[in-house]
Specification:
By secondary structure, this protein is α/β, with parallel strands linked by helices. Helix content is 44%, strand content 16%. It has helices spanning 3-17, 35-43, 54-67, 84-90, 100-113, 136-148, 166-179, 193-198, 208-211; strands at 25-29, 48-51, 72-75, 93-97, 118-122, 153-157, 184-186, 203-206. It has an 8-stranded parallel sheet. The protein starts with a helix and ends in a 6-residue tail after the last helix. The model has no long low-confidence stretch (mean pLDDT 97). The chain binds pyridoxal-5'-phosphate.
Length: 217
């Protein structure tokens, strides 16, 4: 796969769904990928990337930002409260707001920094014990809680269980977003982004289909 092929598939999925390609942000997930592969995608003009780990992001994106303009970095992995400040300084968006303590810490640093990345609330649509995210039944209350902190909630994010049809989870996430008046839907990865687009995704997070298989992670 290549960036161009993914863009073609996005365009086709948009056409089938009656949506404009401009509604979809392709977050190229560069975690664990060698810098040369990331640079190759930057050289093709792509500017929106996703990383799982604050430390890994801090190790490569400041240098890429010196070399390329207009980079937009999205943090899509579990976030520890002691990494929040660094995360907020590194990234334009955080997709994994999943608990009150994290929201409160973000709010405190937003005051100090005078800025805050776009935020997505992660919903554990599959109710998996090992996965982060608020449970669907707790989502409305938690979204209200984050908004009450005056934080910029742009939408919701989910990672469906690996062994289930993702469309059911995408539809559930879209429903929770709609009833809370949220437009952003971060859903869909290499194996299912077309189905996510069909169900309203605004941010798809595609890694291996663009960069090739990861060595680990
Ligand atoms: C790694 C990762 C992705 C990208 O996965 P691919 O299957 O390589 O597209 C998307 N979202 C999250 C949260 C990830 O951790």
């Amino acid at each position: 796969m290549s960036l161009a092929e993914i863009q073609t598939r996005i365009a086709k999925a948009c056409e089938e769904a009656g949506r404009a390609t401009a509604e979809i942000k392709l977050v190229a997930v560069s975690k664990v990928q060698p810098n040369a592969r990331v640079a190759a995608v930057l050289d093709q003009g792509h500017r929106t990337f996703g990383e799982n780990k604050v430390q890994e992001a801090a190790g490569k994106w400041p240098d890429f930002r010196m070399a390329y303009d207009d980079i937009e970095l999205h943090l899509i992995g579990p976030l520890q409260t002691n990494k929040v400040k660094q995360a907020m300084q590194l990234a334009e968006a955080i997709h994994t707001v999943d608990r009150p303590k994290l929201a409160n810490t973000i709010a405190r640093h937003a005051q100090d920094l005078g800025q805050c990345p776009d935020l997505f609330v992660q919903v554990n649509t599959g109710e998996e014990t090992q996965k982060s995210g608020v449970l669907p039944t707790d989502a409305d209350d938690f979204i209200a809680e984050v908004r009450a902190l005056d934080l910029p909630v742009k939408g919701l994010m989910c990672i469906p269980p690996v062994d289930e049809e993702p469309s059911l989870h995408f539809a559930l996430l879209a429903k929770i977003a709609a009833r809370n008046g949220l437009d952003g839907l971060s859903m869909g990865m290499s194996s299912d982004f077309e189905r996510a687009i069909a169900l309203g995704a605004t941010h798809i997070r595609v890694g291996s289909a663009i960069f090739g298989a990861r060595d680990n992670g």
